[in-house]
Amino acid sequence: MTIQLHNISVHHSGAARSALALRELNLSITQGEQVALIGPSGAGKTSLLHTLACALKPESGKLSIFGEDPWQLSSSARHAMRARLFLAPQTPPLPPRQRVVNAVLAGLLPQWSIWQAMRSLVRPIAPDVAYEALARFKLQDKLYARVDHLSGGERQRCGMARALVSNAEVFLVDEPLSALDPTLALQTLAVLQQEAGKRQATLICSLHQVELARANFTRIVGLRDGRIVFDAAQQDVSDAMIEALYRNSDKMPTPDGEPSEVALIPTPVPPRC
Ligand SMILES: Nc1ncnc2c1ncn2[C@@H]1O[C@H](COP(=O)(O)OP(=O)(O)OP(=O)(O)O)[C@@H](O)[C@H]1O
User: Fold this and answer.
1) What is the chain's alpha carbon radius of gyration, rounded to the nearest angstrom?
2) Which of 16, 83, 164, 206 is paired with 188 by a 20 to 30 Å CA distance?
3) pTM of this prediction?
């Protein structure tokens, strides 16, 4: 099992201790699985991806990635683990004045020495690698453009190209399609899924496009109020489950941050690869 969460609860630093972003989550994902995370805004999709990327430390519960608890490792061992995980945030943190070629090649940084990294900033070491990755997202003509001259959707695809050049074993991708038109969204998702499939990487992808998730992922995890509401095979996800997942709650929040009511749906047995 590549990823195992047992009763994981997480809160963000700065948030009230009781305002948990994830509440007693249980989840197991095997290497090579492709999982879509869906759920309303604030459900905890980003928090879950950041927890899996070892960017957020759980408050309680047991987390295992590649068979080890990242937070029991030394910081250098955890750093090495992070290099096997690629987190593509909703808004890729690309330095504005950087050239696209360098932004993409940053995906190779975990494999480079400090000298290679510095040399590449002056004169990109492997522009062909960046070019090929960009071409898969139809962005090759922007190879030497400045990042702050890209549109939002182009930046997102630049972030995806960076994922492609990395040798990550797990892709944690947050809302990769939010700034893309429907055609590009489909193409981008296809490239991500093909690449993950080709290298047997695990792909965990949060999506607001529920129909895209249902059409393209064999396993769908529905989150709401920091809890897993369902974890089901694509064919077992019904319209009623989706409707309940996204139903607006007009209940007033309680002062301790606990949601006053969550429509929990019995969880079908998750599919196994
Ligand atoms: N930096 C932060 N500090 C404090 N609380 C946070 C922070 N980031 C998120 N939260 C809270 O954690 C909970 C889960 O947020 P999260 O961003 O994980 O949801 P999400 O499902 O990814 O939402 P969206 O679809 O809008 O991106 C929310 O209640 C949110 O308000």
Assistant:
1) 19
2) 83
3) 0.87
